Amino acid sequence: MQFTDLPDLAVRSLGGAVLAANDESFAEKECLVRDPEPVYTPHDFGNKGQIYDGWETRRRREPGHDWALIRLGVPGLVHGVVVDTAFFKGNYPPEVSVEGCTLGGYPGPAELAEADWRELVPRSQASGHTKNHYKVDSPRHVTHVRLNMHPDGGIARLRVHGEPVPDPALFTRLPLDLAALVNGGGVVAASDSFYSRPWGAIMPGNASSQADGWETGRRRDDGNDWLTVKLAGRGVIAVAELDTTHLKFNAPGAAALRGFDAAAGADMDDESAWFDLLGRTRLQPDTPHRFAVEDARPATHVRLDIYPDGGMARLRLFGELTAEALRDIERRYLTLTSAT
């Protein structure tokens, strides 16, 4: 698996935000975490010059470098960073670096300035009009990142790919979506991701368009498409929500859910180890469907089968963690945060 197959923890739709930048004279810092790919219209000038879909600082005339502070939408372990300089050809930074820190609560820029920042991406060469990939090998739990341009220039997007590790403090006090990315869920496999990434189905909030979710290509065989979700922890699912909102002519005709419990010691490739949560059920286009799940067996993974293909705006699996799973999550979180 490439690190870019992991979700972007900084993206705006996940709750990421650019909290501060030392300069944004030409183009706004908020563009760094926008979902869509950058766009560009030549000779489209505003009061500050050519309009760019990205963050651009003035030409630096003094020593130093430019920086931006980004709050991750969900904290976690960073496995790689993409610094996208799309359309910045004569005004990109020749070098970049990225740092990370961990601060609980909701710190502002002044508090972040005093944080213990540690290197994620050392000062490295960058190219213009390019998606610059930097692999990160760090055990550090990260809540915020600082993007540095050496010395100045423009960057269209910052993608911070990694594994979500949220604070479990509220897990016992809120109804829990065991599949949600913000709660530590993740997609471990999918049959197809032609139109959009599978983890779009476990993003927070309601889908904003047909592109906001998971959608496969059209099948021309007798099979069906599927995705496998790793739950936030071992738990019992009570309600499943299969949401086809905005999918009007490309919704699946039907879907099914099966569970797998890794604690039982079976192999995920053993079909007999999977148990039904929701039998094959007809779906309607552009509709949020909710189904009660009667099987009270714990699961660690859930497979969504769609028939034969199509899209799923959101998959939500509401339930409760087992007491042991919650303790394991709490221990892991304390281990990762104390290591910082």
Topology:
Blueprint: E1 17-21, E2 45-46, E3 49-50, E4 55-56, E5 66-84, E6 95-101, H1 109-113, E7 118-125, E8 131-135, E9 141-150, E10 154-155, E11 157-164, E12 176-177, E13 186-190, E14 214-215, E15 225-243, E16 254-260, E17 275-282, E18 288-292, E19 299-307, E20 311-312, E21 314-321, H2 323-338
Antiparallel strand pairs: 1-5, 2-3, 4-10, 5-8, 5-9, 5-11, 6-7, 6-9, 12-21, 13-15, 14-20, 15-18, 15-19, 15-21, 16-17, 16-19
How does this model look, in words?
The structure is a single chain. This protein is mainly beta. The chain has 2 domains: 162 residues, Galactose-binding domain-like (Jelly Rolls), CATH 2.60.120; 157 residues, Galactose-binding domain-like (Jelly Rolls). The chain is 6% helix and 40% strand. The chain has 2 helices and 21 strands. A hairpin with a 2-residue loop joins β2 and β3. Belongs to the allantoicase family.
Keywords:
Jelly Rolls, globular, eight-stranded antiparallel sheet, 340 residues, 6% helix, seven-stranded antiparallel sheet, mainly beta
